[in-house]
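Q: Convert this sequence to structure tokens.
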Amino acid sequence: MSYQDQSEMRFSSDMSSFLKAVGYIGLLALVIGILFLVLGCFRISSYAFKTYESIDKIPHNKVGLLLGTSSLNSNGQPNDYFTYRIIAAAQLFKSGKIDYILASGDNLHHSYNEPRQMIRALIKAGVPSDRIVADFAGISTLDSVIRARKVFLLKNVTIISQDFQNERALFIADKYDLNAVGFNALSPNYGFFSKVAIREFFARIKCAFDVYLLKSQPKFLGKPESIGKSALPKEMSNKPKKLTSPLKFITDNAKILKEKARIAKYEPIAKKTTDTAKMIRKRVEQAEYEYYIPEARVPENKIDKQQIEVLSEEQTEALEEANEVASESLNVGTSNTYIDPNIPAKPNLQANPD
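A:
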């Protein structure tokens, strides 16, 4: 046997060994992958223990997450899955087990709008419209659950759907820190190998990949939204939490008040005919005490508009009294006691009878 033939035999042997190793590795990866998927599906199925079928036994949660589906089948007939979910959500609300319903579904184009269909059906079932919140970006079960946590800020929720979808939704919720329970709506009896059952099998495989390997996120998130009295995250602000001083009126100015008090102090007090020096001095002291308000005695934020109005009214009354006294003194007096130099003297008719 020639050297070339020996080389070809060794190459064929090495290639065969390599292909066998690759085959073994591929087979091992396939077995591990199948085992991973089987365990993942079993893990999803284990969340059946967190679902309820009795309204009396299920705990109360503020919000119920209603997972969407079409109201009609492909043949145009009513979809029983949709109808039973609406009935279940309405029963939970009327029984006081939930206070609000978050209707989450697909709305990728105008001709297909699951949340709108659910809202109309819920209102017909007796749920008030102000207790229904729409999530138009619930494209998949994963999107609906994660958005309930990250967009609608829910920490506790009751998921409403059929049992198979509830198990998947609870599995996702557990991985994204959402405390959830499921309420199982009735399931139509379409057989074990129905189209829905086959679809659910592949949906669980995809769910295991999304959660464990891909760490998938919703296609759309957005700004946080509140349901009921849920608190929104507080925005950062430099404004003080409390007012540092009371609100002031435009006229609450200490400088203006001091100026008016100064005018009132030096403005003469009208003298009445019966006033004595002692009485006038007492009135002046009282006016100084009441209306001259030094800044040290009354803080700026304690002076209000009412004090300014009282001061103006008292000054006006004093001026009116002064005018009245002056007029009375002119009317009571005779020509021998007072002569106004601005008025010309009247002629004496008795001295000149002609």
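Residues 335 and 346 are 11 Å apart (CA to CA).
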